[in-house]
Amino acid sequence: MLVGIPILIHFIRFFKIKTVDFPDIRLIREIEEEKKSIKNLVRFLILLCRMLFILFLVLTFSMPFKKNSRSPGTSAQKIHVMVVDNSLSMLNENASGDLLSQAKKWAEKLSEKLPAGSLFFVADASGKIYNSKPVGIKKASKLIRELTVTNKSKPLQDVLYDLYEKLSSDVEAISFYVFSDFQTFPQKPQSPGSLKKMAMLHCFPLRGSIQTNAGIDTAFLMNPVIRPDEKSELFVRISNPTDNKNENILVRLELDGKEAVVQTTSLDARSQKILTLPFTLKKSGYVSGKIQLEDNGLFYDNKLFITIGSQNSIDVCIIHGKQIPDTSLIPSIFRTDSIFRVGAFSENNIPWDRASAASLLILNEVSHVSPGMNKTLIKMAEAGKTILFI
User: How many helices (H) and strands (E) does the chain have?
Assistant: First the structure.
């Protein structure tokens, strides 16, 4: 109907007879037939351009697209994808309880309000899809209720792009419904590819009452070897990913069931800090322990379990080959630290009881490995000893 408007204007404007009075007909110039034909052609071209402009404008707003070619008996589908964030941050709570439980309830209620016969996929914060084929409302609700917290979450934008790539090729239209606290991630956002299908995104944000949180990032030692009754330091990095300052954070170090260190610190918004926790181990061997902090934020990132080993000495056994001219070079490397107890022997005279008891065995250009030596080496490797071949 809109395309007909230029046609109507064209006929009214160019074909309406208008009478012009002249005092003398001789003043009217002759109209050349050739010029008249050109003018008519230009007029029709203008008319065609106006009609095409309106036609393409209408087509643009109607968003036409070509459907995928499908085998007989199959048809395209409209799919609803329920993406429930089940990352650890969803354990945060507000007056209505934890955010994960609320997200699952919201997803169920929304599913029930969609048109009858709607088909669903259910996915979580790791990008995992819980059903291989689209399911109805009852099955989708069951899958949503069975969701549990995961520590394998990814940035939500990456999850959505991955889900789009997996699902969009088999459906006519796709709608995403995201239930999350929408935490920010430092990772660079993934760039989406070309859109195969139109997709709708509906976001349902949840917000917990806890707006500050400190967590243990990692712990490490500077010294490679810890000795009994020797003062050592454990370095603990804690972080505050929130937008608010976190004050009076209590940090405890517990070793072998006993409290070793207690410190109090504060963290500015979106900052990190490395704490130094001094300790002393009273005996050799391995000691289990944990680092724990107490804050007003979430609890899942407040503990880090550790194991620290201490040794009185490290036995090193060096077996030199027959052709080694200087046998003092390698032992001199270990004599710079008193923790190493070094024994050096020739391959002609190997004390295998001492060699097999060593933590580190060095075979320095040994010319021949006998069957007996081979068995000993295999036993040492299976016992977790270190063997170095030069």
Answer: 8, 17
What is the helix (H) or strand (E) element at residue 251, kind and residue range? strand 246-255
Give the residue from 173, 172, 155, 133 showing the smallest Cα distance to 83: 155
Kindly give the pairing relationship between strand 173-180 and strand 199-205: parallel
In Å, how far are 12, 52, 296 from 49, measured between CA atoms?
18, 5, 69
Closest of 87, 215, 89, 101 to residue 152, by C-alpha = 87
pLDDT digits (tens, 9 = 90+) for 148-190: 998 888 888 888 888 888 888 777 788 999 999 887 654 444 5
Region of 125 (left: φ > 0; alpha: ψ -120 to 50; beta: rest) is: alpha
Contact 156, 180 (CB under 8 A): yes
What pLDDT digit, counting tens, does each position of 107-132 carry?
999 999 998 889 999 999 999 999 98
| Two structure tokens written together for 370 | 């006998």
pTM of the model: 0.49
pLDDT tops 90 at residue 262: yes
Residue 301 DSSP class? T
In this structure, are residues 308 and 286 in contact, taking their beta carbons and an 8 Å threshold? yes
DSSP-derived secondary structure letter, 126: T
Both tokens assigned to 197: 């299908």
Q: How far is CA 34 from CA 31, 38, 40, in A?
A: 9, 7, 10
| Chain-centre distance for alpha carbon 289 | 30
Question: Rounded CA gap, 216 and 308, in Å?
Answer: 17
DSSP 171-237: -SEEEEEEEE------SPPPPP---SS-EEEEEEE---S-----EEEEEEESSSSB-TT-EEEEEEE
Distance between CA 242 and CA 269 in Å, rounded?
Answer: 6
Beta-bridged to residue 96, according to DSSP, are none
- Token pair recorded at residue 379: 């036993």
122, 159 contact by CB (below 8 A): no
